[in-house]
Amino acid sequence: MEPKTDFWRTAAQDLDGLPGDLGLNIAHEAVDRHVARGAGERDALRFVDRRGVVRAFTYAELSKQSSAFANVLIGLGVRPGDRVFALAPRTPELYIAALGALKARAVFSVLFASFGPEPIRVRLLKAGVKVLVAEDTLYQRKVAQNRHAIPSLRHVLSLGALVPGSLSFARLLGAARDGYAIAPTHPDEPALIHFTSGTTGAPKAAVHVHRAVIGHYATARLALALAPGDVYWCTADPGWVTGVSYGLIAPLVCGVTSIVDQGEFDAERWYRIIEQEQVSVLYTSPTAIRMLMRAGPELAARFNLRSLRVVASVGEPLHADAVQWARATLGVPIHDTWWQTETGAIMIANLPGRDVIPGAMGRPLPGVEAHVVRRREEGGTLHLDRIEGADVSGELALIPSWPSMFRDYHDEPERYAQAFCDGLYLTGDLVRRDAGGAFRFLGRADEVIKSAGHLIGPFEIESALLAHPAVAEAGVIGKPHAVSGEVTKAFVTLKPGFEASDSLRRQLIGHARKRLGPALAPRELAFADSLPHTKSGKIMRRVLRAHELGLPLGDLSASDAADGAEPDATEPPSVQST
Ligand code: 6R9
Predict the structure, then answer these.
(1) Predicted TM-score of the model (pTM)
(2) Quick check: do 367-442 and 449-562 share a fold?
């Protein structure tokens, strides 16, 4: 068998590296390389605003503006490795900031604009951010009140009106030189941070390096079939890993024209964009597909969707009925892809050009070695048993040998080390492998929640609820939902002197919304007299989930063992109906 690394090595040969053999920088491969090869006049990004008006940026313009921003950052004293973050809607400035930061060898990240002040504060603090590019209103609403508590934050570059204590992004950019020679960049230098959540503790800041660009390029070519000439639309927001890996980096590195929709989801709008922009490759989420399905086939039939060559999805299970619907309505099937924030790029997929296996995520890419494992404790040490054969299920584990693999959780080496065992990276996903080597998704081994494709850590929501004076304890679960996959539901117990009521429930949800923002706030909230605990006092979210699903409690022991909870707790939840 061909060594797995050959797949990546071959892909790397298509990239240029920095001129003069000075290393590998994502921004050079994404923009400057195309300009150097004479493709500077091609549209790199087309922004479709809320009214449908399109504003295009060529590779040459993007190259110049990102160079200008790199000069701005150097002028502000940004050094390699310093964290430069953005908090902005999907505007051209966000993309310019990302590429400029990468050119300046800063470490870049986007904060999801729908987060509230608390998740933003936690992330800025955790990463020790030095420069924040922020839209004025988002800054005023979500950062200003906490700025004093983020000592590392030296400069706020405001998009739009100047806010107190900020500099004008536009003015700085306009005054900067638009030529920039990227300094030598080691391929293993940090380039990006993507936040992700576990079940316990604050969110984790997964660190990715410049070498990851090989992974973005190789997987977009193979699993999304991107090639020059394509008009490609990744519907994910850059506040999440898909929006950066496949909404920003991969399409530019592949030299295609990429659509950025500045509006919110609307089925008619989406079909119109596909028709008007002649979108050939669409990368989206199963939640979005379900929303299109709900809008009915008549709506789709009003548009010419024949430009679509490949449709792919990620983030949640893609059910077989969605694949059939797409064949009938879009004229092409949907290719499921599987990956994670940590893997940085697609690992498992139903590849375009091959038969789609409906209901399965597909097979590992040629550069990926995937195993099904079971965890085993021996003498206090964790071991993994690889389960060979067909139709076996267990946890998905990967041999970490691809270029876009994360290299650290920023400032948390122990948490990073815990993600690996016996030479394998543990994904936390439960899967079944069939005789043909295709993987099916069974569920998570832990208690993270996937709502509308967004990964949500229950701990972050519980912490926000606990900050309310009425709340004694909180446990948050994902409740199955027909469109979003899951929605968040909180169970809370009250402190003495507080009474459960509809008005208190609204108050608590409102309190959580104000702190967390609409993306993270619990959708539902139930009061309980008590919550189920393990012997060591941890709240057993799985018992709450089972209660919600009406499952017998006995079904829970196996999965509790998987995340280290003590399965012998028997205390059932006692939930009130209000
Ligand atoms: C890219 C992204 C990762 C988790 C992952 C798994 C779930 C991703 C999936 C899927 C079923 C698929 N997931 N792709 N589940 N089928 N094709 O989503 O990254 O936000 O880190 O989430 O999403 O549970 O472990 P991230």
Answers:
(1) 0.95
(2) no
